[in-house]
Amino acid sequence: MKRSILFALLIQSALPTAWAYNQDLAQSYQKFYAPFAGADTMKSLRMMPAEDFVKAVKAGEKLAVLDVRAPGETTIIGINLPNTLTISMDKVFVPENLARIPTDRKVVVVCKGGHRATAIAMALRHAGFDNIYILNGGTVTLEDYLSPKTAY
Predict the structure, then answer these.
(1) Extents of the domains making up the chain
(2) How many of the other CB atoms lie within 10 Å of CB of 102?
């Protein structure tokens, strides 16, 4: 028993007490996420419900879509709207792809369920894009919302 306690203490003392992290980056995130509190969180996230997205498309609103799903997903079920960029999540931050993202209109980031879109949208906004929105619930909610009645 004494040996196991001694061994545990030795192991614990050999481990760092805190992981190293980039303090400047952490401070930039603190500043970025400061408005994300309480009732204003959803507004700060800029979540766009499927209904609002469809209304914007029907109204001819100047927007672009950034589809961050994997190539296998977009090959079978794609978004065929004008100004749609299909860039998988792992390729969005390649400089050539960042240059393709418009800055003169709303950009709605889309994935299947909204999780990848939220991560990419937050990172893009943190990087300086101030025109980024998220399709709330992703293509799943869009498919649930769309019908012959709502699509036209």
Answers:
(1) 36-151
(2) 15
Rounded distance between C-alpha atoms, residue 69 and residue 116, angstroms: 8
* Token pair of 16 as six digits: 């760092």
Spatial distance between the Cα atoms of 66 and 109, rounded to a whole number of angstroms:
5
The pTM for the full model equals 0.83
Among residues 66, 47, 58, 151, the alpha carbon closest in space to that of 107 is found at 66
| pLDDT digits 0-9 by tens, 51-102 | 999 999 999 999 999 999 999 999 988 999 999 999 999 999 999 999 999 9
Tell me which of 3.30.70.1280, 3.30.70.890, 3.40.250.10, 3.40.309.10 is the CATH number of domain 36-151. 3.40.250.10
